[in-house]
Amino acid sequence: MSVLSTKHLLGIKYITTEDIQAIFKAASDFKEVINRPIKKVPSLRDMTVANLFFENSTRTRISFELAERRLSADVLNFTASSSSVSKGETLLDTVKNILSMKVDMVVMRHPAPGAHHFLSKHIDANIINAGDGTHEHPTQALLDAFSMQEALNDNLKGKNIVIVGDILHSRVALSNIFCLQKLGANVKVCGPPTLIPKHIQELGVGVEYNIRKALEWCDVANVLRIQLERQDTKFFPSLREYMLYYGINKALLDDIGKPITILHPGPINRGVEITSDVADSDHSIILQQVENGVAIRMAVLYLLSGKR
């Protein structure tokens, strides 16, 4: 059994290119499994995985839970809103109580950047970061890159990838940048100046403020959601104006006249980041991302279980 170089998946920053390739190889194998009539394998039988979600989530939580059940793990679901956290219990006390039930692995989403690093120093279980604040979301970046490779029928070395939208508030953007760079891609970000973090060029990425120029340059565009719930001030005049200057529509893609693969981590604000005729077009691999998300998360769970 292959294993990763680390006991936890805290972020793409902390794993190697070899780890990424091992995850992709395992995901390809698991993708065959989940397309069979019998979709379960006994790889994590007798192991218990706790899904700890301190923030709302639908896609990521369901994807992890399905991946765990496909691997025959016992699954424990926890949501902060219906727990003792709402009564003032600390993160560490909550997790220690759950681990006392003999949990082997923890999948956690938490609003505080670094929460997973803190836990990794205090508990023995494997930890998978399902999103920490505006920091990282490693499994999303892995499934994005895996989906890009499938769509291009090639590795990503030398490919031009642009990440479009709300870079400032996105945990997906940072994980994507780290992952794509480790795979040899050229990365740019594009969006309004108010939504591009200061000093982002220090990560080795280009910055483009013109959506047309960004699309003319790229092979793949990963379009991010405008995260209105994280914006405590207005970063642009209106959603209509954002769509006018940074939204991607079919007429724009047709005018550019070259094949561009479109991704979106979801949920989509249709008519804001992209129009429906793009989201549902042949350019889009959004539904493939969802399918690949289960396979990637199966791969991560399986490979990390080898570190126990």
How does this model look, in words?
Helices cover 38% and strands 15% of the residues. The protein has 2 domains: 12-136 and 290-305, Rossmann fold (3-Layer(aba) Sandwich), CATH 3.40.50.1370; 138-285, Aspartate/ornithine carbamoyltransferase (Rossmann fold, 3-Layer(aba) Sandwich), CATH 3.40.50. The mean pLDDT is 91. It has helices at 17-34, 59-70, 91-99, 115-120, 138-152, 171-182, 211-217, 239-246, 250-256, 276-279, 286-305, and strands at residues 48-53, 74-79, 105-110, 126-132, 160-164, 186-190, 206-208, 220-223, 261-263. It is globular. It is an alpha/beta fold. α1 (17-34) crosses α11, α2 (59-70) crosses α11 and α5 (138-152) packs across α6. Strands 7-6-5-8-9 form a 5-stranded parallel β-sheet. The two termini are 12 Å apart.
CATH topology of the largest domain: Rossmann fold
Coarse shape = globular
The CATH homologous superfamily of the largest domain is named Aspartate/ornithine carbamoyltransferase
Calculate the terminal CA-CA distance, rounded to whole Å: 12 Å
Structural class, from secondary structure content? alpha/beta
CATH architect. name of the largest domain: 3-Layer(aba) Sandwich
From the alpha carbons, calculate the radius of gyration and give it in angstroms.
19 Å
- Order of H and E elements: HEHEHEHEHEHEEHEHHEHH
Low-confidence stretches: none
Mean pLDDT: 91
| Main sheet properties | 5 strands, parallel
Question: What's the total helix number?
Answer: 11
Can you tell me the number of structural domains?
2
User: What strand order characterises the main sheet?
Assistant: 7-6-5-8-9
The proportion of residues forming helix, as a percent range, comes to 25-40%
| Beta-strand percent range | 5-15%
Number of strands: 9
CATH C-level of the largest domain? Alpha Beta
